[in-house]
Automatic annotation (TrEMBL), chains A, B:
Stored CDD domains: GST_C_8, GST_N_GTT1_like
Organism superkingdom: Bacteria
Gene3D superfamilies, A to Z: 1.20.1050.10, Glutaredoxin
Domain GST N-terminal: start-end pairs: 8-87
Name of protein: Glutathione S-transferase family protein
Domain GST C-terminal: 90-218
PROSITE patterns according to UniProt: GST_CTER, GST_NTER
Organism, scientific name: Massilia agilis
Amino acid sequence: MTITITAFERSPDGGKGLARDTRVRWALEEVGQPYQVRLVSFAAMKAPAHLALHPFGQIPTYEEDDLALFETGAIVLHIGERHAGLLPADANGRSRAISWMFAAVNTVEPPILELVTARILEADKPWSKERMPLVEERVRARLAQLSARLGDADWLDGTFSAGDLMMVSVLLRLRASGLLDAYPNLAAYVARGEARPAYQRAFAAQLAVNIGHQGKPG
Amino acid sequence: MTITITAFERSPDGGKGLARDTRVRWALEEVGQPYQVRLVSFAAMKAPAHLALHPFGQIPTYEEDDLALFETGAIVLHIGERHAGLLPADANGRSRAISWMFAAVNTVEPPILELVTARILEADKPWSKERMPLVEERVRARLAQLSARLGDADWLDGTFSAGDLMMVSVLLRLRASGLLDAYPNLAAYVARGEARPAYQRAFAAQLAVNIGHQGKPG
């Protein structure tokens, strides 16, 4: 079985690990599955060949024999179902870990994406400064709830799971904003995720792609 | 086995079916599982007893024997894994249906939620009118891609699945905006979902709760 994923030829973040292929690389590293990477340019992402794999013209995609998947959450879940290391063995624990995967992408990530949009895509708009506190407050509301639930535990529900992988990945997007600093247990939780050898390997692999472009004309 | 879900005592939409318990009711109706509903007030949703079930103080939750779940996507997936009717029998088709579930909540719904926020929570802000075209354009970009992929098919990937249940539910939030009207195949897709007997039963059940409050003081 050969696994092939797609990633940005040049990531918009320059290799900070925020592109979503890092989440899939991390999952594959946690379960010890080798994989190949096909790099795609922004132009190629919107071309028919890639759209056949990913209807929304994004990365990552996942190919394994005659199966093609898109959406990071679905890919990480697929990997967790096929290989040990990302989901608890008992059925109830597994369903709860999947609750946290969906919570990461559907409850915690949307206000964070809105903050990223406000900071980057709407930074030059006349309303940018006045609107920012509203957007930040929506993120803080979620962080406060997540912080209260995590308490002094290492992971969200027992041992490390795909739910933690997704949640840590989502929270990493907040680093530039400084919003995480007000919640020391969440900052420590993110650091715990980053310290995992599998994350380190995934981060290094995506960085190597992007370092290759440094100093070259865009 | 007794299944108990939670729903708003009084839904903010007054019974239009947009509260997320409708998605879970729909899934349970598709697989023919009876369920009980515990209604919660806005105050109760933020109290410790409910936060123990749902860390973000929302509805729906799902209880079944000693299992407690939150997050609509995870609950619908759990139902689909335990009962026939929501996920294809073959492993690859099942993984692809899950791709569409995540696409619904993580790629299509976030810009729609941003539009709802802009139309409701930021309607009285000085930037509201000038910013709205930007927000609408982000929704249209996703709708155009989804419309291109759906083409003239009835459902997103073969027969009706939990992926369609989630995608139709997400698109239903756009009805008030009129944005769906520009994509006749998506409008027909949503209508096809609403026409399913299981959806009709789910809609009627949530409406009955909210009709009970009509004319009573809030």
